[in-house]
Amino acid sequence: MKMLLFALIMPIMLMAQDDKEGYAMWQTIYLTPNTANLKALGLAMASHNKTYHKTGPHQASVYNVATGPNTGKMVWLMGPLTYADLDTRQVRRP
What we know:
This protein has three helices and three strands, in the order αβαββα. It has helices spanning 2-16, 38-52, 83-87, and strands at residues 25-31, 60-64, 74-81.
């Protein structure tokens, strides 16, 4: 009985670990905005995202956090992407 169960489960376990590119992740950054300059920050982030993060794996979105311990903060999400996509990202230096 144990051998039969092992014979049935083993192929499933082997197939589950075969997928090397099937993962997706998101880069998340929490920001605490200065509420006095919130409109300027929103416009600057929208302009940046339209220029550098419009499509593809580096596509980004910004959301306001409404509940939980980070209420009042903003979260910047980029993805879905892989670690290889992070290697191809061009970082702009000031």
